[in-house]
Amino acid sequence: MPTGEMGLFIDVSDTSSSPPILAGASSRPRVLNTAQSIRMLGVSFAPGGASSLFQTPVSEIANLTVPLDEFCGGSAIALQAEMLEAPSNAVRFRVLERYLEALLAAIDAPDHPAVRYALGELRSVHEVRIADLIGRMGIGQRRFIELFRREVGLTPKLYQRVTRFQQVLASIENHRDIEWSDVASLHGYFDQAHLIHDFNTFAGVSPTVYLQRRSSRNHVTLPVSSNGNFLQSSARGLHHDTASPSLRTKT
To answer: What is the DSSP letter of 220?
Structure first.
């Protein structure tokens, strides 16, 4: 399910043929096909963090997964080769850490202070008005939205909705009997229908189905028909990523 974060994923299976994958910030759920067992190593970037590593605006891959070499060229292929040769996951993480540090040193693109400030506010105060944020920063609305999308991948309003939805999931993580109207009120939703709308948008399922089928905070198990397709009554608006058919993720 969407978290507002970007991710980098590398298939380290013995028979791996997939390139390292960069997953953009998302505003809809992604499907992970678990029919085939693979070993995947990855890293999630803090919102806005990945923009310091790449020259291309990360807004260009929002809701997409793309091969890392489209952003980093041949160094991405060399990274995968080194990862596959590493004897353990601990060594693989050190290889990946060195790679990201090298990208950061080469690009040296610091985040904009307005975006950094806005991210802090939007994470801590779910009812803050975007217009009020812009007023306090003394920056034009169009310019702020452009900067935010360039560094985070989503618009400020959409990022705020995703963040609030994540706060909802965190608040109900250890509960089964839930009064949804109270949850909606606590998190600043207009009413319960508004909350249900965000569940359908960001989780692809209703709140009831989410509780029945969640395997962790950001994952649900979806039923499939005999022909292998997801049952539409249980999954709405789920995104099968067409940019990189070798990877099916749900974040």
So the answer is: E
